[in-house]
């Protein structure tokens, strides 16, 4: 969801985040308030584009403030490599007390999200979670926190601050990177799960800046909500659209469909894109093949789900820059890992535009079967097929390789 998010896609505070939260889950976006004051504006992108000569040239520079698809991730983000220390606060309310014995269920419901982050990072991110001793009673009834009416940044921060204050006597926040607040299942009016990277609360001498709150939607989507929202705390944007295309009203997933967890949480292919993995430091430069205009380039791609432990000689993606802020990316999607439920396999082709903000389509999947009943579910190009990039005329061909790999060739 957006940064701050709402019960719909996924939230990472700002409002865009709230709306995003709902959309990521496939729900209808709800109204949300504005994010906290922050610098705004678009970073100036170079007007001169030189053909790439090294992998470094494929690291498209960030060209928007906040959550984005460029390098480096915004300075609001938490480090994605190393140890992430999370405080998990279980909260209930006078009007909705938690049922006896439900604390373990709440912990278990989110645990798969931690596993997702550690697996997809290839072990480069280690998440340690310290949980409150049972349920922490909030100082106000659940109805005092207006999740159902479109949560503002101020209301969200008040909710998080109340949870921290209520837990502070028995919880040590001195060595915490991110606060996770999960509400009891008995409080359905705490609806969605937003994120903020602008918390500004101090507890036990620690200035806390990042938090995610989990609402009733977590009981439907489980740990993938945690993994989506954590993507925002690490700097990743929402890939679902905050506004549906006029020509396709209601289709908030017209950009990437279900091909990345930062888009449709309930999608069949929730593996993070290889591009996101590279942004976060979960892929090395020597796993990226940077194709240059004017020369033929080939690569043998491992399935993206196995890119963290790919065999020698196997790459993770091909990047073909089109400008200083835009590139075509090719990766191999196979029914393994978190992609085990996909209905189509092969070369997933998408464009990345680092000048496009979160929720407006910074990543867009190229559909190999436009107009099909499956939408983007059958977007990958099958082995033996090809695609011509429309602005340069470069031809990309896709051939089968050994052990589930995919050979990609880019010819100018």
Main sheet makeup: 6 strands, mixed
Uncertain spans: 4-47
Provide the gyration radius in Å: 21 Å
Strand content: 15-25%
Beta-strand segment tally:
18
**What order do the helices and strands follow?**
EHEHEEHEEEEEHHHEEEEEEEEE
Q: How far apart are the termini?
A: 38 Å
Helix content: 10-25%
Mean pLDDT: 89
Give the number of helices: 6
Shape: elongated
Q: What structural class do helix, strand and pairing data support?
A: alpha/beta
Structure, explained:
It is a single chain. This protein is an alpha/beta fold. 16% of the residues lie in helices and 21% in strands. The protein has six helices and 18 strands. The chain has helices spanning 15-25, 103-120, 153-167, 218-221, 223-233, 274-279, and strands at 4-5, 82-92, 125-131, 136-137, 178-183, 195-196, 201-203, 206-208, 210-214, 288-290, 297-301, 317-321, 326-333, 346-353, 363-365, 386-388, 395-400, 406-411. The strands form four sheets. Strands 2, 3, 4, 5, 6 and 9 form a six-stranded mixed β-sheet that branches. Strands 10-12-13-14-15 form a five-stranded mixed β-sheet. Helix 2 (103-120) packs across helix 5. The radius of gyration is 21 Å and the shape is elongated.
């Amino acid at each position: 969801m957006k940064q701050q998010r709402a019960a719909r896609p996924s939230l990472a505070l700002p409002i865009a985040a709230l709306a995003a939260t709902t959309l990521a889950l496939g729900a209808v976006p709800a109204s949300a308030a504005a994010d906290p004051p922050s610098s705004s504006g678009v970073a100036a992108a170079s007007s001169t584009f030189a053909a790439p000569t090294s992998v470094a040239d494929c690291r498209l520079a960030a060209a928007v403030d906040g959550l984005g698809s460029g390098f480096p991730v915004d300075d609001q983000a938490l480090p994605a490599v190393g140890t992430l220390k999370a405080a998990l606060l279980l909260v209930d309310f006078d009007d909705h007390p938690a049922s006896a014995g439900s604390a373990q269920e709440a912990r278990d419901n989110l645990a798969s999200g931690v596993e997702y982050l550690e697996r997809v990072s290839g072990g480069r991110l280690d998440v340690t979670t310290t949980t409150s001793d049972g349920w922490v009673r909030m100082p106000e009834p659940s109805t005092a926190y207006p999740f159902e009416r479109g949560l503002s940044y101020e209301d969200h921060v008040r909710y998080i601050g109340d949870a921290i204050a209520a837990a502070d006597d028995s919880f040590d926040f001195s060595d915490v990177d991110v606060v996770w607040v999960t509400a009891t299942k008995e409080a359905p009016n705490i609806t969605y799960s937003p994120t903020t990277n602008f918390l500004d609360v101090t507890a036990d001498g620690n200035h806390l800046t990042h938090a995610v709150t989990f609402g009733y939607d977590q009981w439907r989507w489980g740990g993938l909500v945690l993994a989506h929202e954590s993507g925002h705390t690490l700097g990743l944007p929402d890939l679902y659209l905050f506004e549906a295309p006029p020509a396709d009203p209601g289709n908030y997933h017209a950009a990437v469909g279900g091909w990345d967890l930062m888009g449709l949480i309930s999608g069949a292919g929730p593996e993070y894109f290889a591009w996101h993995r590279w942004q976060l430091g979960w892929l090395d430069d020597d796993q990226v093949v940077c194709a240059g205009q004017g020369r033929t380039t080939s690569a043998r791609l491992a399935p993206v789900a196995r890119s963290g432990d790919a065999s020698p000689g196997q790459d993770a993606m091909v990047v073909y820059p089109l400008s200083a802020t835009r590139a075509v990316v090719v990766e191999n999607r196979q029914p393994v890992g978190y992609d085990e439920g996909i209905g189509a396999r092969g070369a997933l082709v998408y464009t990345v535009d680092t000048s496009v903000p979160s929720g407006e389509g910074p990543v867009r999947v190229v559909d190999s079967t436009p107009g099909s009943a499956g939408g983007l579910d059958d977007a990958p190009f099958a082995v033996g097929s090809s695609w011509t990039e429309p602005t340069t005329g470069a031809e990309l061909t896709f051939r089968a390789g050994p052990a589930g790999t995919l050979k990609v060739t880019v010819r100018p």
